[in-house]
């Protein structure tokens, strides 16, 4: 009910605001001269075409937690009202276009018949009734688009259907749950089509060419409109129109251009984007999809209109149902399109296509085919039939008909339709977010991720680069038009160039080079589409082996742990990894759980984080007591879990002061037990803490219940409850603040310490590594944005081994890069891909005692273990050293573990039992004190309580004889 309430409320508020603003702007336009009317229509088009994340980023800059206006305008943009406001600023042009188009039927006589009807009476008695049908359609379309908008609510963390559908599938892979959740969203498009079918005045669904568009030249004198509206109403609507254009167009542009950090971060953002070819992917994905949409529509539309072998499409009784099928993917959230493609192509026999760019292009084609179909239908309906009939009588082929009869008349319309679809694909996020192939990240997706996981100044630079890509086709078209004035089917004076019938008759040789190029292009596109269609039928990807050789100087092979899913031993975008003292692996993923694996990759147990509705855990390490620390960024707190998943400590609170957190991201502990925590957003810093020892939470369960619960935790996920008492952290110092200089941070995503307690910080959005002394003094920094050796692209995590080698996880480049103790690059491991040894958005890394490297390969939903390369003598020496270290420390360590896990035994036995552990025999016993206890034997094994089996045998707890 909460989702339904929020979704309807946001959509209604956005619709009311958008329609009200749109009508006011339309009134203003009606009284403007031709030149100013054209200017405001262009501004309306720009507002409608503005990427949602650009508008959202703008208002985050002004009204976010640290917004420039927050001191004077205390409004919370992270709210239902904030989402409705941004959506209204994006959608108001729909009502403006509808009202302007409807008022084109206005005649001067209607205004001059009664000159006394002015102001509100004119608006209520004539203008609104004349545009009622168009306003209803516009309001319904606005409501549907607002209801199904994904990017704005997701970035603002507003719980509505589209955003929660993505979150739910992204967390649990619950396909049927998402489909059931989407049912209310289907009602909106159905209602829209019902209105269109019942509205015979507009007949939008029957004849695309009858869609009324606002003209630059008004049909009624603007002076007459201004006189009848009156100064008060006209200038009131003018103030609303000017303010709206300022908020919808002016502020986003000014915010991008005038913010200094946009330009300082632009070179680094562009260099980092080259790592995964994000710029190229953005352009070619959008261009290919737009071309495929137009070609698909042309393949059907001209065939029917040219040959006339069938009745006109507009008279087909199946047209409404066909148009509904075409428009549903556009009007529904793109997440559903991605979900459908996952179930169609995420199989072993279609994996090649599923992991290629073809899946993204196909998703875009499905989403925007209705726009291409309507544009092509409208363009071909305006073709001069006499010219087409003359060419057909001369025996022109279909390609010749298109080249010489259709293209000169429809070229500009088709080019405009291509450009609109190109723009929509260019900043589409929701359609591709679930099906993005490894290494196929686009600028839009990168911007969305940065905004979704926290506002970042680098977003401005990426938005500027994206807008430059949007202008590239227009610039290219302008240049080509200057060089070849006849391009686009128009002559030097802008008139259509109609080829005479003689140019389409005779042999193909008489057609010239244009026909050859045309046939070549069509053949190329046909082969491309045929290849995309047949790839799922002909390709087959073998299953990944358990261990694969790795061409590395330091690592011999790679092992894959886990697979995509939410079951035991499966992952959903793992983001953080940690290693305990026994080299067990701990993995936190988007399901909000932590899973434990043995060093061989066998699943041991898992537990669920206390809360996950605001966000999922990120950031892990091992503390000085052997507990696993897990951060919760959206809850601003730190959790300490025992190796068997018991929550033993929890602390932290939201704020910007010492000891408080805003989006903590990474944690590390030095040899003195001091803890470092990195943050970003409002606090671009790393804090250092001294934690006092805390008590273990008491457990008053019986021995049988405790043993059963422990065994249950090994097989299933257990939920944990907050511990008591809480620790008392003492902040020691704070490092850094926002910026790009030495000691300044821009999203410190990963941190670690070396053997000398030096602190290493993966300064991700500055694309560098910074190194500090143990007391927080800046030592040095290295790295720059790029994809070459020694260059970095969004380093998200870092580890340092005993030899000083630095292992850096590059989220942007999809690889692991290794540097020596002098910050010189040694080698690069992997590249974007889905095979073993390849990575897709690797997020976290960890080293075990043997030097093996674990990588959280998030977008591939797995963990990869890189096995250290060692010779036989080194391996033997390492085993002996590990055995000696274990023998030297096993007794006190296991004593502490057994004491903690068997605490409930002493409680249940009324403290009449004492635990005795012998280091000499590696055995422990529960000895009864003098009491009335029964002397019957009962024994336990360490494995009964989830303890790891030791290399030299099992610990046993036997009652003394």
Description of the molecule:
The protein has a five-stranded antiparallel β-sheet with strand order 1-2-26-25-24, with no helix packed on it. A hairpin with a 4-residue loop joins strand 25 and strand 26. By secondary structure, it is α+β, with helices and mostly antiparallel strands. The C terminus is likely disordered. It is globular, with a radius of gyration of 33 Å. Helices cover 46% and strands 16% of the residues. The two termini are 63 Å apart. The protein has 26 helices and 30 strands.
Spans of 5+ residues with little confidence (pLDDT < 50)? Answer: 201-210, 305-315, 488-545, 693-717, 885-913, 917-922, 929-961
Strand order of the largest sheet: 1-2-26-25-24
Cα Rg: 33 Å
Structural class: alpha+beta
- Which percent band covers the strand fraction? 15-25%
Mean model confidence by pLDDT: 78
- For the termini, the CA-CA separation is 63 Å
Percent helix range: 40-55%
| DSSP summary: helix tally | 26
Q: What global shape is seen? A: globular
What characterizes the major β-sheet? 5 strands, antiparallel
Tally the beta strands. 30
């Amino acid at each position: 009910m909460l989702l339904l309430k929020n979704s309807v409320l946001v959509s209604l508020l956005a619709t009311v605001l958008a329609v009200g603003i749109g009508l006011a702007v339309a009134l203003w336009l009606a009284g403007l001269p031709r030149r100013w009317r054209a200017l405001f229509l262009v501004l309306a088009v720009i507002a409608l075409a503005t990427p949602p994340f650009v508008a959202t980023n703008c208002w985050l800059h002004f009204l976010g937690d640290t917004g420039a206006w927050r001191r004077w305008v205390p409004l919370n943009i992270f709210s239902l009202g904030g989402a409705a406001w941004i959506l209204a600023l994006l959608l108001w042009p729909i009502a403006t276009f509808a009202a302007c188009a409807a008022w084109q039927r206005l005649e001067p006589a209607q205004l001059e018949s009664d000159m006394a009807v002015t102001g509100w009476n004119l608006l209520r008695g004539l203008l609104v009734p004349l545009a009622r049908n168009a306003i209803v359609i516009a309001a319904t379309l606005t409501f549907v688009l607002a209801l199904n908008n994904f990017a704005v609510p997701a970035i603002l963390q507003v719980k509505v259907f589209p955003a929660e559908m993505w979150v739910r599938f992204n967390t649990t892979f619950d396909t049927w749950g998402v489909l059931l959740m989407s049912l209310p969203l289907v009602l909106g498009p159905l209602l829209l089509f019902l209105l269109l079918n019942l509205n015979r005045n507009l007949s939008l669904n029957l004849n695309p060419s009858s869609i009324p568009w606002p003209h630059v030249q008004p049909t009624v004198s603007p002076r007459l409109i201004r006189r009848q509206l009156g100064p008060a109403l006209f200038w009131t609507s003018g103030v609303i129109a000017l303010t709206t254009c300022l908020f919808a167009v002016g502020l986003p542009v000014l915010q991008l251009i005038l913010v200094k950090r946009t330009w300082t971060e632009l070179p680094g953002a562009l260099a980092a984007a080259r790592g995964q070819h994000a710029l190229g992917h953005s352009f070619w994905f959008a261009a290919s999809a737009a071309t495929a949409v137009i070609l698909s529509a042309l393949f059907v539309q001209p065939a029917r209109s040219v040959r006339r072998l069938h009745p006109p499409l507009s008279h087909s009784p199946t047209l409404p149902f066909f148009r509904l099928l075409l428009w549903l993917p556009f009007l529904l959230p793109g997440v559903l399109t991605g979900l459908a493609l996952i179930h169609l192509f995420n199989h072993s026999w279609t994996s090649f296509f599923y992991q290629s760019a073809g899946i993204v292009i196909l998703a875009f084609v499905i989403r925007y085919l209705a726009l291409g179909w309507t544009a092509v239908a409208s363009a071909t309906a305006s073709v001069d039939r006499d010219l087409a009939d003359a060419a057909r009588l001369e025996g022109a082929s279909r390609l010749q008909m298109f080249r010489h009869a259709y293209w000169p008349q429809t070229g500009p319309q088709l080019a405009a339709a291509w450009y609109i679809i190109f723009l929509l694909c260019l900043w589409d996020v929701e359609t591709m977010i679930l099906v993005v192939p490894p290494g196929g990240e686009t600028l839009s997706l990168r911007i969305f991720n940065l905004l979704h996981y926290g506002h970042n100044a680098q977003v401005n630079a990426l938005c500027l680069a994206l807008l430059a890509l949007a202008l590239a086709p227009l610039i290219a078209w302008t240049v080509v038009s200057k060089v070849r004035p006849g391009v686009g089917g128009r002559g030097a004076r802008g008139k259509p160039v109609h080829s005479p019938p003689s140019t389409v008759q005779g042999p193909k040789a008489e057609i010239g080079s244009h026909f050859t190029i045309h046939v070549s292009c069509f053949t190329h596109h046909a082969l491309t589409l045929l290849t995309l269609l047949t790839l799922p039928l002909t390709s087959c990807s073998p299953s990944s082996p358990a261990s694969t050789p790795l061409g590395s100087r330091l690592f011999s092979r790679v092992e894959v742990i886990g697979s995509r899913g939410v079951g035991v031993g499966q992952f959903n975008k793992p983001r953080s990894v940690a290693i305990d003292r026994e080299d067990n692996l701990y993995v936190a993923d988007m399901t909000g759980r932590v899973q434990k694996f043995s060093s061989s990759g066998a699943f041991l147990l898992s537990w669920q984080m206390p809360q996950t509705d605001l966000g999922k855990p990120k950031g892990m390490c091992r503390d000085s007591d052997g507990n696993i620390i897990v951060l919760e960024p959206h809850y601003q707190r730190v959790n300490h879990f025992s190796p068997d998943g018991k929550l033993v400590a929890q602390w932290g609170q939201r704020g910007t002061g010492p000891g408080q957190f805003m989006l903590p991201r990474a944690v590390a502990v030095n040899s003195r037990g001091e803890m470092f925590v990195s943050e970003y957003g409002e606090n671009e810093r790393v804090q250092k803490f001294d934690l006092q020892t805390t008590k273990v939470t008491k457990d008053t369960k019986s021995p049988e219940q405790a043993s059963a619960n422990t065994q249950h935790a090994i097989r299933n996920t257990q939920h944990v409850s907050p511990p008591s008492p809480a620790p008392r952290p003492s902040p020691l110092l704070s490092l850094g603040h926002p910026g790009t200089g030495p000691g300044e941070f821009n999203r410190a995503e990963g941190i670690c310490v070396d053997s000398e307690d030096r602190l290493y910080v993966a300064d991700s959005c500055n694309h560098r590594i910074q190194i500090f002394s143990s007391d927080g003094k800046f030592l040095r920094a290295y790295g720059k944005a790029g994809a070459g050796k020694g260059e970095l692209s969004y380093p998200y995590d870092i580890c340092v081994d005993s030899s000083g080698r630095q292992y850096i996880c590059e989220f942007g480049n999809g690889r692991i890069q290794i540097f020596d103790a002098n910050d010189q690059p040694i080698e690069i491991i992997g590249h974007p891909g889905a095979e073993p040894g390849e990575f897709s958005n690797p997020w976290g890394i960890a080293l075990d005692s043997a030097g093996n490297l674990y990588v959280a390969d998030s977008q591939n939903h797995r963990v990869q273990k890189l096995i250290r390369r060692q010779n036989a003598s080194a391996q033997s020496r390492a085993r002996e050293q590990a055995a000696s270290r274990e023998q030297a420390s096993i007794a006190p360590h296991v004593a502490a573990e057994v004491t903690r896990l068997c605490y409930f035994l002493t409680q249940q036995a009324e403290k009449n039992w004492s635990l005795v552990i012998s280091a000499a025999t590696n055995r422990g016993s529960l000895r009864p004190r003098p009491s009335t206890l029964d002397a019957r034997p009962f024994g336990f094994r360490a494995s009964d309580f989830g303890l790891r089996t030791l290399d030299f045998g099992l610990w046993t707890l036997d009652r003394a004889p």
